[in-house]
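yo

u said u wanted the structure for the complex thing, so here. seqs first:
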Amino acid sequence: MSASLANEKKILRVLRGQSELVPPIWLMRQAGRYLPEYRATREQAGGFLDLCYAPDLAEEVTLQPLRRYAFDAAIVFADILLIPQAMGQKLWFETGEGPRLSPIENADNLSCDSVLTYLAPVFETLKRLSTSLPNDTALIGFAGAPWTVASYMVAGRGTPDQAPARHLAETDAAAFQSIIDALIESTVDYLAAQVDAGAEVLQIFESWAGSLEGDAFERWCVMPVATIIEALRNRGIDVPIIAFPRAAKSHMGAYCAATKCDALGLDTGADIEAIRAETGPDMVLQGNLDPLVLVEGGEKLDSAVRLILDKTRGTPHIFNLGHGIVPQTPPQNVARLIELVKEAGI
Ligand code: 1CP
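structre next:
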């Protein structure tokens, strides 16, 4: 290993294509409701959005999981739905239910002009984290992919099958495209500003990739993410970018080639070996452990973790879940997970 690589944070080495005996690990949604200290800070903030926009408290909840666990990265505490709010759409959270937005059918009332001003608290959180994080922990910034964010903007809430957005895309593609274009523009500005504020890695969450196929998948999932990544590169942003097209039915080799992502997030249902064969030996893969196995713990967790380690040994892999950690996860199971991953080096 060259001296410059050896001094780099482990997750950044892997994102450059190096394999590690003990893979780096972080968990999607690692700051959150499974931790009592998170629930206490959210209470102190008043609500979820107040927490996102209070840099001292958002910094605190980002750091909380790192005080318990030796994660190799921290993801800034924010949400994919802050972008529509910054573009002028009304957003609120119903207690115990989730996000609500005033539904839209086109981009008429959206504006990209104030996005960076509106989201300044997120950049402040990142700036604070770049000095307060442990030296070997990398800082991840993120955004939702346009299709996923638009699915909430059109429906006004989370939906199991994204039917309202799919309907609009089918019946008035120009109107839906106007929403996607506005999201592309804002997301490029937002992600570039996150890097300026200290993010060392970016992840683009396409949580609802699974609801589109064929031409619709190409147009609404692949093209927008490809455009965002290209625009970031044109601006000189060179940090690694992880794309996470959850439950996508498309071929992942083609997805990686088209978007030019540096790493690919694998959902719970993904077959690591089949995807490795499609993407080739150099693509960095991340994830795949079932969040419900982490809830269950015990023998099942031990064997699921060892199986992933076996399948990924000698390849550039970042250990992670196949989707966000769920609130009912016992915190001691996360400690056991870290222990199991570290055993890969014994
Ligand atoms: O405290 C609470 O009750 C709110 C729960 C919560 C949290 C902890 C929400 C509401 N958002 C978040 C933070 C968050 N969201 C992070 C940063 C924290 C971390 O990862 O440690 C990130 C990366 C997200 C991303 C996010 N938000 C996604 C993509 C990832 C995924 O899980 O698919 C999505 C789809 C959202 C929307 C959203 N925000 C919150 C909820 C409950 C939802 C899902 C709503 C739904 O689909 O019904």
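The chain has one domain: 3-345. The mean pLDDT is 96.
cya
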